[in-house]
Write a structure and sequence with these properties.
Oligomer: single chain
Structural class: alpha/beta
Distance between the termini: 18 Å
Mean pLDDT: 87
Strand order of the largest sheet: 4-5-6-1-7
Number of helices: 6
Largest sheet: 5 strands, parallel
Strand content: 5-15%
Number of strands: 7
Helix content: 25-40%
């Protein structure tokens, strides 16, 4: 089946464990080839896209945020902007602070050791980094799993306000108003 992800649609791929959510996301990340069918970005088949073209369009946030090996959260936030692909694209201090506010993170977190953060704080920092990157499409693996309901709503609002196309996989619906469309993989259990 063919799916199109226009901007700024927020598509939820919903399914219980073991139904292929991670495989679906791995294909969307170009880390796994589909057994049948094809994936496209900007109307071009994934197979023909260079890694650089793909990475300039897409940012991803894993289910368990592993923050860069940096001594401070500021270092974690700034680390991706030192990569060759992102050189010349550095967020301003105002953008970082606005992002912290959008994700309900105290600015004092910038000086903290990433290892001292809670799971929810790590998840929100990883989401902030994804939004600071100039990417049109965000791929998110269980973006609300480490969050309490209030934090989940805060993160959903920040993503919705970004105006980006978002594809996320989940098995729990913490923010039912967030997706604009749902792809339900529930049928896999009927096999």
């Amino acid at each position: 089946r063919s799916e199109v992800l226009p901007q700024p649609e927020r598509v939820r791929v919903m399914a219980p464990s073991g139904c292929g959510k991670t495989s679906f996301l791995m294909m969307a990340l170009k880390l796994l080839a589909p057994a049948e069918g094809a994936l496209a970005l900007d109307g071009k088949d994934y197979a023909g896209l260079s890694f650089a073209h793909f990475r300039r369009a897409i940012a991803a946030v894993p289910q368990e945020a592993e923050l860069a090996d940096e001594p401070t959260v500021r270092g974690v936030i700034e680390a991706p902007f030192g990569y060759r692909l992102n050189r010349g694209v550095r967020p301003s201090e105002a953008a970082i602070r606005a992002g912290l506010a959008a994700f309900a993170l105290d600015p004092a977190i910038l000086d903290r050791d990433p290892a001292s953060l809670s799971g929810g704080e790590k998840q929100r920092v990883a989401c902030l980094v994804a939004l600071l990157l100039p990417r049109r499409v965000l791929l998110l693996d269980e973006p609300f799993s480490a969050l309490d309901p209030d934090s989940a709503r805060v993160v959903a609002r920040a993503f919705a306000d970004s105006g980006r196309a978002i594809l996320y996989v989940t098995h729990v619906d913490l923010v039912p108003s967030f997706p604009t469309r749902t792809i339900d993989l529930e049928a896999c259990h009927a096999r």
